[in-house]
Amino acid sequence: MHELSIAENTLQLIEDAARKQGFRRVKTICLEIGELSSIERESLLFCFDAVTCGTIAEGARVEIRDIPGSGWCRNCAQTVAMHELYAACPLCGGYHLEVNGGDQMRIKELEVE
User: Fold this and answer.
1) Where in the sequence is the domain holding 77, given as residue range(s)?
2) CB under 8 Å to 36, separation ≥6 — which residues?
3) Strands in 1-113 per DSSP E
4) Disulfide-capable partner of 47 in 7, 61, 102, 112 (CB 3.0 to 4.6 Å)?
5) CA dist., res. 15 & res. 71, Å (int)
6) Angle of helix 41-51 relative to helix 3-21, nearest 10 degrees?
7) Count of domains in the chain?
8) CATH code, 104
């Protein structure tokens, strides 16, 4: 379950930002999660609740924005939508796709006090 380490790393980033910017509590965390990131959203939310107990992010609302997957087809020389890794190109059926979007997660914004 890599979602636990993702939740821990996210909390660490938030705590680092709190030290630098001087906020004491996080009310809302907005995450962008790519369709191709292999992150289970429900597992991440469960883990985040567990790791934030007793921290500045305890009880924070987590909003998740889905980012669509995309890839560059070397056969077609086109950017195409991708819904799973290692899929065939929807235009030509070839398997020469390079992921160019939707494979990451980032903290988009925080609402803090």
Assistant:
1) 3-112
2) 69, 82, 84, 85, 99, 102, 103
3) 26-34, 61-67, 69-73, 78-82, 97-101, 105-112
4) 7
5) 34
6) 50
7) 1
8) 3.30.2320.80
Mean pLDDT within 69-94: 95
Which residues is 62 bridged to in the sheet?
29
pLDDT in tens, 31-80: 999 999 999 999 999 999 999 999 999 999 999 999 999 999 999 999 99
Could you give the strand order of the β-sheet that contains 26-34, starting from the edge strand earlier in sequence? 61-67, 26-34, 105-112
Where do we find the tokens 């056969």? 75
- 1 neighbors 42 (Cβ within 8 angstroms): no
The tokens for 35 are 């369709």
Closest to 64 (Cα-Cα) out of 2, 13, 7: 7
The dihedral over CA atoms of 31, 37, 41, 43, expressed in degrees to the nearest 10, equals -120
Pairwise CA distance, residues 72 & 97, whole Å: 5
